[in-house]
Specification:
It is a single chain. By secondary structure, the protein is mainly α. The protein has one domain: Helix Hairpins. About 80% of the residues lie in helices and about 0% in strands. The protein has five helices and no strands. It is extended and about 75 Å long.
Amino acid sequence: MSHPKPYGQTMKSKGGFSRLFSALRYTWDGLRAAAKHEEAFKQELMVVVPLSIVAWFVPVSLLERALLFSCLQLILIVELINSAIEANTDHISLERHPLAKRAKDMGSAAVFLTIVIALAIWGTVLWQRFGAK
């Protein structure tokens, strides 16, 4: 009698186009989950989406435009990783533990540093274009 495969094994890739479509579905599921359950992600979306649109219309070079856009997306990427760390930590245990706190604090610090990078890039690009006369 065969035993059902553990959950993790059922998620393993089979390859080909089905793997691509599965990956896209998982991506969409992850973005929807973050937008539904993560307040920080929602707040960042309210800033990142409008600024991402603005980035395409600022009269700067193509490289500068790519930097403006990419650093905003990086904030969302790092927030997704931080949220995944937090969800996994909470899944393991909701009890307070110094290692759980350390993991969550480091994820939060990574998001903060990414926001600092974005502010530095936007500030530099906009200053060079509009402020340095």
